Amino acid sequence: MLKIITKTFQELNTRELYDLLQLRSEVFVVEQDCVYQDIDGKDQKALHILGYRDGELVAYTRVFKPGDYFNKASIGRVVVRENARHYKYGYDIMTASIHAIKENYKETAIRISAQTYLKKFYNNLDFKEIGEEYLEDGIPHINMIKF
Question: Domain spanning 3-107: which CATH class is it, in words?
């Protein structure tokens, strides 16, 4: 069972911040072999959705209100630790993120910039592709929206 915690940047303690940055680096930089600026100055505006299993951070997203990243509310930095993916925690952390947007921002329209290979995963969460595929940091992405 995944224990979900939602915090603003200011509410994060040092350990939580370290763990989320480590997890993002582990997957987005090392596993995906992608050199990019993960610490982008946007974490301070985000709500952080942290998913713990047995005290270990295994899933994470950050969410934004409309206008802070895209014109619609958005979810980004969706990540699940490699050794925990078979538990389908991606669905749990995304469902919690969608709920956090509804609760905190009173929004239902959500835009994401998804890695193209995950289109089916996001389709299962009612996101639909909009526009053309594009490269972001050398990785194919597609914009998707959920109403």
Answer: alpha beta
